Amino acid sequence: MTFTIPIDNGDSVKNAEADSQRTLYPYVTGTSIVAIKYKDGVLMASDMGGSYGSTLRYKNIERMKAIGKHSLLGASGEISDFQEILRYLDELVLNDSMWDDGNSLGPKEVHNYLTRVMYNRRNKFNPLWNTLVLGGVKNGESYLGMVSMIGVSFEDNHVATGFGNHLARPILRDEWHADLSFEDGVKLLEKCMRVLLYRDRSAINKLQIAKITEEGVTVSAILIEDILGIQSVQQSDCWC
Amino acid sequence: MSSIGTGYDLSVTTFSPDGRVFQIEYAAKAVDNSGTVVGIKCKDGIVMGVEKLIASKMMLPGSNRRIHSVHHHAGMAVAGLAADGRQIVARAKSEARSYESVYGDAVPVKELSERVASYVHLCTLYWWLRPFGCGVILGGYDKDGPQLYMIEPSGISYRYFGAAIGKGKQAAKTEIEKLKLSEMTCKEGVIEVAKIIYKLHDEAKDKAFELEMSWICEESKREHQKVPDDLLEEAKTAAKTALEEMDAD
After folding, report:
1. Residues of chain B whose C-beta is under 8 A from some C-beta in A?
2. Which residues cross the membrane (chain A) (predicted)?
């Protein structure tokens, strides 16, 4: 295996070409993300599973991360590509904060950056195999958008990836309305996640719900679903 | 301490008969001509302040930053040739980024100061490069707590409780030694640094100056950032009052 010395010009996004292999298929994947806008911001839910083909191999993967002060990123698809995207975003946020000019990247800017990255990688036939959900609040305005691995990007009041598109969005289309309260929003997301648990074979019953408001990001404790509904808050690692 | 090194001072690769490299000493003179830069290590963090001499009334306040963030947890205040300083800051940013990329963790401040010092030293080894005409005070907060380093044009770097470079460095060092740094919080430190800088500013020689300050402490969540505007104003007022009290004596 040849080892290439990392070229550090502060722009690791452009060094992707140094990689000698292109992504042909994903290996460890995360399943759906479901996200909705609500009264104070955005709510996002994802389960904590990483599948290795048909095996549910990893059961403690956090697929939602805070980006800077104003955004929350959720990803489905190849987990290693998600980690690479987080590294690009770390660099982006660092360079932005080093200006120290009182300004910080908002969700719209991060969404645009991700769209450019995904689209340009797709054009080189070396995609990052993810569908990303980007939510955030800046200056009182909520934002929720999505980017797919081929660079298709759009904004909406409610988004879902993967199976969520087919199973969760019809529920959201019926039951979502503007200015949902926090409790109603969480109930709605739990309903969607329960349907996904029933019908998506790569979903597991451990999930997290994250909320982002003007104050910042909060990721909930790990929740366990079962047929009776969302039950316990998990204390430590368990085999489910 | 000025001596003419006729003949031995043309190149940084020439020693004088008494074992000095004059080009490096001349580089240090460039630092001594610039506005004072002060850095102190308080109980809970680092405070750095710069006396920015304003060349022209047309300059917008807040521009020409002399203190730069090098990573989330570290910052540098530069004295001397500003353009040389930009280069050092850029290199420090790159080193910090590269360390994180390879080792997966934020660069320890000691490691960063060694890398920067080594880079500054590099430019004193070749005849086709000139030494950097700027000194740098590097403040950071890592697992070993807050740390303050100073890097000189010769490439040496030491760790300090309190450091000063530039025009008023002697006076500043005397003032810093009077402070009880181990008992001071950063909030108090900000006021003290402002007082020191106002005190040693020579009204006769240089007319106007702007005070620029930054800190890394628990209050700033261990991130290097500009001192918040309200605290900065408070510090400036306290400094001006202290000056007036002194003048009244």
Report:
1. 65, 68-72, 93-94, 97-98, 101-102, 214, 223, 225-226
2. none
